[in-house]
Amino acid sequence: MASDRDILPEWAKPSHYHVSLYDLEFGGGFTYQGTVAINVNITNNAGWSDLSLNAYQLKLHAAELKLKDGSTHESKDFKYDDKRQRVTLDFGTNIEYNGEAVLTVKFQGTINNVMAGFYRSKYKPKGEVPASTAKDDEFHYMFSTQFESCDARRAFPCFDEPNLKATFDVELEIPEDQTALSNMPEKEVKQSKKSGFKTVVFNRTPIMSTYLLAWAIGDFEYVEAFTKRKYNGKNLPVRVYTTRGLKDQGRFALDNCHQIVDYFSEVFQIDYPLPKVDLLAVHEFSHGAMENWGLITYRTTAVLFDPKTSADSYRNRVAYVVAHELAHQWFGNLVTMDWWSELWLNEGFATWVGWFAIDHLYPEWNVWGQFVSESVQLAFQFDGLRFSHPIEVPVYDGLEVDQIFDHISYLKGSSVIRMLSAHLGEEVFLQGVADYLKANQYKNATTNDLWSALSKASGQDVNSFMDFWIRKIGFPVVTIAEEPGQIGLRQQRFLLSGDVKPEEDETVWWIPLGLHTGASASAASLHKVNALTQKEDTIRDVDDSFYQINKNLTGFYRTNYPPERLVKLGEARHGLTVQDKIGLVGDAYANSVAGYGATPGLLALVERFQDESEYLVWSQVLTNIGNVRSVFSHADDISNGLKAYQLKLLTPAVEKIGWDFKDGEGFLTGQLRAALILSAGLLGHEATVAEAKRRFDLYTSGKDKDAIHPSLRKAIFSIAVKDGGEQAFKAIQNEYLNTTSIDGKEICLQALGRVQTPELALDFLSFIFSSQVAMQDKHSGTIALANNSKVRIEVWKFVRDHWEDKIFPTLSGNMVVLERFLRFGLNKFADDKVADEIAAFFKDKDVRGFDKGIAVIDDTIRSHAKYRDRDEAKVREWLKANGYA
Fold it and tell me: Is 360 annotated as a binding residue?
C-alpha cells in the first residue's frame, strides 16, 4: 500500500456493481433501504478473514460473499471506522481463495440535507405537484446525488477510489408519478410490490469511477434537443431537466449543450461515448456543477436563464459552466486521474477548454480577456501566498482532497495549460490532448501520460519545462532593469507578503517571455529570445522606444517594470490589447502589495484609464482600486482621498454610458454599464445615487415593476441598501423571500451585504443562518459583508460568538461549504491583531477538513497588514500632492 495515501487493501478490486434502492421515505425521516451486489476480483494468497470497503453514515444489515465455487460466507460482524469512512466485514473464518466473487450487502441510509452523497434539496414548487412528492410543512423536496470527491460511500457501500473503476447497474423504486434519472437511459420499468410505486431499471454504464455515478428522483420535466452530428447513426438526445414550472429556463443551456457536445467530439477526435446527455437543475448544490457521466447536475443559477428576468452576467456563467462540465465527459470521465493528487488534470483542463468552447460559440465576448481578468488574477492571488500548494499535491485521503477543489487546481491549472497551449500552438496542443485521450480511454492516467502525448505531438520535451510549474509551489515575478538597447531580467518567487526567504526561492522556472519591442506599441514585433531559463539574463537588441514582456498575459508570472517604464506603457495603452492592459494594472497592484513596487505608481498608472471603454479592463481597475481602498479603510483621510480619486476616475465613464440598454448592444457593454453604476453609486456619485433611488422606489412601491432592468438589480439594490438604512434593508429582504427570478436570491444577498451599521450586519448574519437561506447560499451574503469595510469585523465577531451554536453545527456536515464560508468571510482584514485573534480561536479546535482555509486566511491578512504599514505614508503623500486629500 502506498504510504503517502490512505487507500483500501489492494487485493480486492471491484469490476461491477448492481445498486438497488427501495423503501424510500418521502417525508419525515428520509431513510431508504438498499442492496448492492459487487463483483470483486480477489488476489490474496495469504488467506483472509475480513474485507474492508468504504461506507459512511450507513447502517449495514447483512453481508454475504459468494465464491465462484458456489460456497458462501456471511459476515459475522461489522466494524465501522467513521474517521476513515470504512466498514470492515468480519467473516469469522480464514478464507483461502483467489478469483471472482460476489459481495452482496443489505444496508440502510439517509437522504441527508448537507449536499453530499444521496441528499434532498428544498424548493417551493410552481404549479400543481403530485401528492407523492416529498415535502414537509414549509418546502417540497427533490432527491439527487453528489459523490465527488468521496461521497458515494455515503449512499452505498463501495470501493470509493478513482482508480477502482467498474460498471454499474442501477434500479430505483419510486412513486408512479415521479421521474427517476441516472447516468444511462431507462432500460425498463417494473411493477413494484408496493402499491403506487414502480421500479426504474437503467442500462449498464461504461466502466467508470464511483464518484461519477449519479441518480435523481423528483417531480421533473424537461426541454429536449438533438445533436447535429450523428453518433452510432443517431442524433443524440440532449435534455435539461428541472422541477415543474422551470423547464423553459433551461433552453439557453440546451442550445449551448448540443453544439458543445458536437464541437468537443471533433476537437478531441472521439465521439461523445454515451447514448444521452442530461443536465439537471438542483435546488441546493455545494459547487457550481458536477460532471456525472451522462447526468450532469447543476446549481440552478449555473444552468437556468430567463432572458426576461435574469441578469445578463448569468448568461455568461451558464454557457461557461455547461461547457466546463461537458469537457469532463472526456477529460475526467472517459480518462480519469489515477489519484486525487492529480485532480488538476480534470479541473485545470476542463476550465481552459470550457473557455475555449465559449470563445468558439461567442467570439464577441472576448473570452480570453475575461479569463485573464478573472481566472488568472484569482490564481495569482491565491498562489502568491506562502501557504499555497503545488498544482499537483500529495493527497492522503478524502477529507484532504475536498480542500484542493480550489483556485490552484482550477485556475492556476488552467492558466498553466493556456501558457503551454500558447507556446506549442493551439493545433499541436489539441492534437496531443486527443492522442492522450485515445491512448487512455476508459482507464486512469497521470500528468506524465499527458506530457508524453504532448511531447510526441510537438517534438518538444514538455516535461522539462512544465515540471516545475506543476510540482513546485508558487510562481515568479520577473523584475526588469533597463540600459540603452538592452534589458536585464531577474526571476524570483512572488509572495504577496514580499518577504521571500532564500530557501523559498530556489526554483528556476522556464518562463515564456513573449517579449515585443519596436518603435511603438503598434509597430512592435516578437523578439527572437523567447524564454528566460535561468535566474538572471540580459537581452540585447531591445528598442527602448517601446517594449513589453508577457504579451497578452499568456505566461503565468508577474512583471515588475521600472516606474518610468510603467508610465510609458500607460501612455501607450491605446496600442495594447485588453489582456495587456489587464496584466499591466494587475501586476502594478500586486507589486504594490508585495513591495516590489509602490501604490503611488499604481494610482498614477490607473489615473490614465479615465477614457477606457472596455468592460474587462474596467473590471480589473475597479477590483484593484477597491482592494487598495479596503486595505487603507482604517485611516479616514486616506479613505476619503481614495474615494475622491476613484470618483474622478469613474465619473466621465458612468456619465457617458447611461442607464438604458439598447437593442443590439453587445454583452460586454451591458456588463460595463452594470459595473460602473454599481461603483459610482457606492462611491456617492450624486446623479447615480438619485437615479438608483428613484428606480428603487418605483420598483418596491409596485408602481413600476419594470423600473429596474434585470442586469441592474445588483447595482440598484446595493446602492439602496447602502443609502437607505433599515427601510431599504427590509425591502430587499422581502424581495429575497418573494423573488421568482432564478438569480434573484443570490443578487439580494450580495446587495444586503452593503449595510452600514453593526446592528443591520448582525440582523443580516442572523437571517443568513435562518432556515430561509439555503445552505448553498450562506457564503454569498457573508462574502458581501466581508468586502464591506464598514461592517466586516461583525463577520469575525459572529463566527467567534456563534461557532458552537450556529456556524459549526450548520455547516460542518459539508466541509467544502464550511471551508469556503470561513476563507471568503475572514480574509479581507489588514490587521495583525485580527489575525492573532483568529489564530488563537482555532488553535485548540479540530480543524481537519478546513485547516488549509485557516492558513490561507492568516497568510492573506498578515500580507495585507504588511502592505498597509509599508505604503500608508506614501499613499497619503501622493493623494495630498495630487489634490485628492
Answer: no
